[in-house]
């Protein structure tokens, strides 16, 4: 099982980012991917400096994805014990990732001006992605979605990066040149040898398969809307009993979503 560790930080004294939406979109494309059962996604929030080291030691991820703020030469922005910003320098990050160079294959820094850190980390990690300037929420989310969708469907790191940039471009954004990849071996894939299999073209599906696919896609869209509404209710819930009740509902929705995405994958890839 390969592991993608998402680390998110949005200190109280920084501009609010749509990190929850970014993680949700990554989880959605993962659920719908051909090789979803070979990849585990773990997300940790409000990351402090010590949490970073502890999370890498505990989860032993293959990919580390950071979502948050970056300040170029000042470093990445994590949280201190009071939930306020604390900078982590490029040199410190490089030293940390050097200790994990035999385990971690890829680091994605989905934060403004993070190319500075990417260049240092890439001395120890095969593939590192950073941003060469400020990047908007929408473009950051689209890049992450395209990158992980390709990766979880068997593409290598370089191809997945290209898919991420293309996802930005398809939205008509001018930010497709903002993500920058630093890579030594462009043929490497999260799943080992690239396992890309193209989906079955729609015109090759039988009428029954097409109708079933349309029905499943509509049901999936409704379920995901319901799931997002429950997430909002859970966030706003005031007491433990209400949170527990909503968590049970969320768990059931995830089971329903997983079941439908597996059925869709069977149709899309002829499984």
Describe this structure in words.
- By secondary structure, the protein is an alpha/beta fold.
- It has 2 domains: 2-183, Rossmann fold; 207-269.
- 48% of the residues lie in helices and 16% in strands.
- The protein has 8 helices and 9 strands.
- It has helices at 19-31, 49-59, 90-98, 115-121, 137-152, 157-170, 207-236, 240-269, and strands spanning 2-8, 39-44, 63-67, 69-70, 76-79, 85-88, 106-110, 127-131, 179-183.
- The strands form 2 sheets. Strands 2-1-3-7-8-9 form a 6-stranded mixed β-sheet, with helices on both faces. A 3-stranded antiparallel β-sheet has the order 4-5-6.
In brief:
The chain is of the alpha/beta class and 271 residues long. It has helices at 19-31, 49-59, 90-98, 115-121, 137-152, 157-170, 207-236, 240-269, and strands at 2-8, 39-44, 63-67, 69-70, 76-79, 85-88, 106-110, 127-131, 179-183. Residues 213-263 form a coiled coil.
């Amino acid at each position: 099982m390969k592991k993608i560790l998402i680390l998110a930080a949005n200190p109280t004294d920084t501009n609010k980012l749509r990190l929850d939406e970014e993680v949700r979109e990554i989880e959605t494309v993962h659920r719908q991917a051909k090789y979803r059962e070979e990849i585990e996604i773990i997300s940790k929030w409000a990351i402090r400096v010590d949490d970073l080291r502890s999370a890498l030691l505990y989860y032993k991820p293959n990919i580390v994805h950071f979502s948050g703020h970056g300040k170029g030469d000042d470093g990445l922005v994590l949280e201190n014990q009071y939930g306020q910003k604390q900078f982590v320098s490029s040199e410190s990050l490089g030293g940390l990732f050097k200790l994990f160079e035999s385990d971690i294959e890829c680091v994605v820094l989905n934060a403004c001006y993070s190319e500075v850190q990417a260049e240092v980390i890439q001395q120890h990690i095969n593939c590192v992605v950073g941003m060469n300037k400020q990047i908007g929420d929408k473009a950051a989310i689209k890049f992450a979605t395209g990158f992980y969708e390709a990766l979880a469907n068997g593409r290598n790191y370089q191809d997945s990066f290209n898919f991420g940039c293309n996802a930005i471009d398809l939205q008509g954004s001018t930010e497709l040149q903002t993500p920058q990849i630093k890579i030594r071996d462009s043929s490497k894939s999260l799943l080992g040898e690239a396992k890309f299999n193209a989906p079955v073209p729609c015109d090759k599906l039988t009428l029954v398969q097409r109708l079933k696919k349309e029905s499943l896609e509509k049901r999936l869209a409704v379920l995901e809307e319901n799931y997002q509404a429950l997430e909002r209710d859970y966030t706003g819930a005031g007491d433990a009993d209400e949170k527990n009740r909503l968590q049970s509902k969320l768990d059931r929705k995830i089971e329903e979503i997983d079941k439908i995405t597996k059925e869709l994958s069977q149709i899309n890839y002829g499984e």
